[in-house]
Amino acid sequence: MANEVDGPGAQAPARNAGLNPLDRLVGTWKISGGSEGETTYDWMEGGHFLIQRGEATREGQTFTFLQIIGYDRTPGAAPGDAIVGRLYTSTGDTLSYVCEADDQGLTIWFGAKNSDAYYRGTWSDDGNKLTGTWVWPGGGYDETMTRTS
Length: 149
What we know:
Elements: E1 27-33, E2 36-43, E3 49-58, E4 61-71, E5 83-89, E6 94-101, E7 105-110, E8 118-123, E9 129-136, E10 139-147
Antiparallel strand pairs: 1-2, 1-10, 2-3, 3-4, 4-5, 5-6, 6-7, 7-8, 8-9, 9-10
């Protein structure tokens, strides 16, 4: 199918291989620790963006959220250098992240890569648990995601 944004007859670009480590996230997860809830990850048609949806409770406040994760790309241009995430909450917040994933784990920086606010998690041997810590100046909490499907 033609990529209508780039013009008639244009082919959609192949998925950036840098996204492949995020395949491990596809499925439904229970969140426990500093936040409690459930989240689901699925690839958007075309495979260029991972969509996360969920509900969580943190510090007594329950909220739903939607996050889109992938490379920024202007139509017709090469994708950016970093995997970015934009998270939107039912409480009106918009949060921006930079993500890196590999076979060992996942790192999510708030705002920009190498910021002092981040999450760093490690995969279990079977890939069904991600255990890590959210860190920021003056605070943080442990969080675990366990695959439920």
